[in-house]
Every structure is written in structure tokens, then in C-alpha cells.
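Worked example
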Amino acid sequence: MREPKSTERRGLPYLIEIATNLFPIWILIGMILALFSPSLFSWYATGKVLGTSLIVWGLAVIMLAMGMTLRWEDFRDLLRMPKAAGIGLVAQYLIMPSLGWFISLLFQLPTPYAVGLILVGCCPGGTASNVITFLAQANVALSVIMTTCSTLAAIIITPVLTGWLAGQYVPVDGWGLFLTTFEVILLPLLIGMSLHKGAPGFVERLLPVAPLLAVLVITLICSSIIAQSASAIMAAKWQLLGSVIALHGFGFLLGYYFSKVMGFDAIVNRTIAIEVGMQNSGLAVVLAGQHFANPLTAVPGAISSVTHSLLGSFLAFIWRLSKNK
């Protein structure tokens, strides 16, 4: 590999790189603004284009950008290492539900918060994990496959584990989960990969701004979710915030070392850690609102959406810098 010239580290591409590396700061700023001025972001959570939520469009754009960085060969290579995807799936539904149950007891959470935290732990990996994996320069293809597998498995596993650990049964719209997976993950990803193959010149011009675009969109999504629940979050005690931080913090940690014990390299370890530590909190909020009478059950999911993004962003920030060095 040739040494980069000094001029290559100047100009607009360099500024875009700096702005991308500061993504934890943008998410934190968005969270603070959403808490104190919810109207700045609430429009995004409620807005629709062509009958589809702006959040769905945002995630689709992110997946399209990530798809443009992938080759079909990346997925063929993964078929030669199915152990990583399998271990990641086991870690997802072994570590997080157990942590949700244990931490709710450890922090002695009130019933609605305890049920909400367990529900978050029992949900599949979220599409935000694919974004963080992308920004961390880990294995995006593996992350996407793990998200897809855990989402499809959630049709059965999420209601069973939630019913067992939280003492109530939560029905899940399996067909809706499948359609969302296809629309938000698989379809844009396939389009992006097709562009990578069929229009490499066009993709090459877009790739420098793709990470920054992902940062801006995920900041907008997280801020809009917080804006919707701002009053409940402001009223929540530190007991609840600490429990959510503990859930995701130990999720990242245990996911990494679970993978490491299984003999994988650092890139796979980071990918599995991100996938385990980041949940589909939006699904948890929706299920809590539809299947539990107490509205406070949805609050852990709302806090989780920003907490795991912040923790994952800081991890990706550190890993991205270490890889660049």
C-alpha cells in the first residue's frame, strides 16, 4: 500500500472524515436538544413520505449507502464461516435477555420499568447496529446477516422469552417483522450492492460522503425518538437510566468476549459485540405500547434507543481511529 501524500489529508474529504469521527458528539447534542426542545425533532418521528415513516426512509437510505460498500463476494465468503453468524445469534438471545432480567432485579426497578427493560433485552438486533458496524469499519456483511437472522428468529423467540422472563406473553407480528426486514434492510442493501457492481464510477463519487450521511440520519432518528418521550424521560429517575446503561454496556462487553472465547479475530469480535449490545429499541417501544397497559413500560425502550447508539458510537469512534492509525 502506497503512503498517502500530505495533500490527500486536506480539503473537503478531510473535513468530512473529521465530521464523521465526531459522530458521538452529534448524537449527544441531538439527544440534549430533543429533551429540552422536542419540537425540533418530533416532526421526523411522525412525518411520512408516500405513506411510509421518515424513520423507515432514513434507515433505508443508510442501508443503501452501506450496500454500496459491499460486494457479492463478501456474502459468499460468509457462507464459508457460518459459525460466526450462528455464534452471534446465540450470543444475542443468551446474553441480552439474561441481562435484562438480572439488571431489573439488581436495580430493583418498578414493575413497568422492569418489564420494559426485559422487553428491550428480548428484542432482536436493530438496524442501527449495521450503521455502527459500518462506521467502526468492522464486518458489515456479517452484521447485516446477524440482524436479519435475529429479526426473523424474533418472531418466535421474543414473545417466548418475554413471556418467560417478564411473566407475560407478548404477541409479535411476524409477517410485519419480515416485511420491515425486507424493506429496510434487504431491499436497499441489494440495490446498493447492484450499484456497486453495475455503476462503480457513480458509487466511487458517493462513498466519501456515505459515512457522514449515516451519522446525520442516525442522529436524526435517535433524537426524534427521544423527542417523542421527552417528558417521561425527564421524569425518570437515575435508577432507570443506570439500568439501561448497564444493559447495553455489559451487552457490548460480554458479546465481545463471548466471541473472543470462541476463537474469532478482532474484527468479528467487534461485529458481534456491536450486534449484541445494540437492540431494536423501536420494536420494544411499539410492543410495549400495544401490549402493556402502563405507558411507562415503553420508557426503557425510548432511553435505550439513544443509550446504545451513544455507547456504540463511542466504541466505533475508538475502533475507527485505531484502525486508521
In short: The beta strands are 48-49, 52-53.
